[in-house]
Design brief:
Strand order of the largest sheet: 4-3-6-1-2-5
Helix content: 25-40%
Distance between the termini: 27 Å
Number of strands: 12
Low-confidence stretches: 1-27, 39-47
Shape: globular
Length: about 300
């Protein structure tokens, strides 16, 4: 099992429905790929350069063509994408991000994958969710991206959960702020897949309990809440969540109300889950990740059990 304390890029995540053919994707030629991966790197704008910020972070060598096969509004400010990646060399670990190369856009994006590795294995699909911003890749996703748009992707990042079948069982505490939910949703979905596999086959990695703490401005900005609650209901003995809203102005729905707390995630809530069997994954704005990682260290959690990623 591996995890790392690392500072990395902006993030995304989401789920959508659509179909596109592999044959159409293969029309993205080798010369187009070279254009995306070389020209765009050379022209990246320094003030928003994901490649510069993550230059020291491990990433794969393979750059793979991808085609947009679905898009949806995940919230008023976040758009989710589904990409078809037929390249069999393309793989990722739950929690990792991609370099996102867009034709005609000089800046390379950095977005976390929010789907599980199992979806890629079964359908050759990955899912992203991108928050609206003035950053050129985000603007492209929100304003210009269409079905069948061709891009290229490369996996990177040292923030992931990838247990092996013989590893000791661990509990997970996932702490998310805003679009920081993206890599943590991938980890949550991967953990659910591992539990299903272990329950069906009687072998494989045995996941412990998982508690998700997730804070957003209001319930409309709580991304993937239906996906999260579906997993909580499917595995009530394994998965639990505490959803926090900091500036709620409308009535909270009856379906969500049992899971909602008005106010920020507190130190005590996290401290109550400290144990030697627990790994902590934190992703959100830099002040939030700094605060909780320091709090956990002060609670004598080993540094190797605290994994964090900052979005910018």
């Amino acid at each position: 099992m591996a995890c790392a304390v690392v500072v990395t890029p902006g993030l995304l995540r989401g789920s959508v429905a659509a179909v596109c053919t592999q044959a159409a994707l293969l029309r993205l030629t080798a010369s187009t790929l070279r254009h995306l991966t070389l020209t765009r790197i050379m022209k990246s704008k320094k003030e928003t350069d994901h490649l510069e910020r993550t230059a020291s972070v491990i990433r794969q060598e393979v750059v793979s063509p991808a085609k947009v096969c679905g898009a949806a509004d995940e919230s008023p400010s976040v758009k989710s994408l589904r990409l078809l990646v037929t390249d069999k060399e393309f793989s990722f670990k739950a929690g990792q991000w991609i370099d996102f190369f867009i034709p005609g856009v000089s800046v390379v994006g950095g977005f976390s994958i929010c789907s599980s590795p199992r979806l890629l294995e079964q359908e050759r699909m990955i899912e992203l969710a991108v928050k609206h911003a003035n950053h050129p890749p985000a603007l492209w996703v929100h304003n210009k991206c269409t079905l069948d748009s061709e891009v290229a992707v490369r996996v990177g990042g040292e923030f992931f959960f990838d247990p092996q079948p013989t590893d000791a069982s661990r509990n997970l505490v996932l702490i998310a702020g805003g679009v920081g939910i993206n890599p943590l949703l991938s980890i949550l979905r991967h953990s659910a897949d591992l539990h299903r596999e272990q329950a069906n086959k009687g072998s494989g990695y045995e996941i412990g309990t998982i508690k998700l703490f997730y804070s957003a401005k209001n319930t409309s900005e709580l991304l993937f809440k239906k996906n999260i609650l579906n997993l909580v209901n499917e595995f009530p003995e394994k998965i639990a969540c505490s959803l926090h809203v900091t500036r709620q102005t409308t009535q909270i729905s009856a379906e969500l109300k049992p899971y909602i707390t008005e106010g920020r995630i507190t130190e005590k809530e996290i401290r109550d889950h400290v144990s030697k069997e627990t790994l902590f994954y934190i992703c959100g704005p830099p002040p939030m990740t700094d605060f909780f990682s320091k709090q956990l260290e002060d609670s004598h959690v080993p540094k190797e059990h605290i994994c964090f990623e900052k979005w910018w």
